[in-house]
Design goal:
Keywords: Hydrolase. By secondary structure, this protein is of the alpha/beta class. The chain is built from 7 helices and 8 strands; from the N terminus they run E-H-H-E-E-E-H-E-H-E-H-E-H-E-H.
Amino acid sequence: MHFLCLHGLGTNSQIFELQTAAIRYALGPDHTYDFIEGELSYPMEPGISHLVSPGDSFHAYFDPTKASSILSTLAELEDHIAAEDEPPYDAVMGFSHGSCLAATLLLRNSTGSSPAPFKLAVFLSAGMALDNAALEHGEVRMFNRTGLKIGLPTAHVWGENDASAPGQGKLLSELCEPGKRATAVHMGGHSVPGVKEKRDLDAAVKAIKRAIEKAQEGDF
């Protein structure tokens, strides 16, 4: 599968590559990954200094306080996905801010007649999807309405001790179809399990593989 990879707020694509290195290695060589950089400069996210290289800059895809910025980014992301045809994206993998963007796009897409832009979504330390209707009225708020679901296979990995986005990983998982979602809750915080957290890493990889299998079966 060809993955579109979206980094967290105040990080960058190289850091997201490091954060997901162990997961990607465990998933095997049959997948490819395209890490795209947010265009907006942003202060460095606390807690990532061990992943930072000299000269690094830090980015966001959108200003999380401005509906206009979010709507513009959603439109740009749709254009980017449509243009990616060699090969097209099969899946999206997002961390925190990146998962919020991906989930908001998928929720936006679920209200129309167009097919979903992906066969699979992987949400790591997720930020909850935003309410598209509110964005159109200039308001930024998390989606909290009933009756609308993300219907494709999904994998959700979050930490019990996530202080940056408490409860949002679980909320997003509940917005996805129960029969098509796989979850793994680890002992850490706002992070991705790595080689030092073998049990948590194994659980995360198992959840992602389950979602991949459903997507490959056409279960969406």
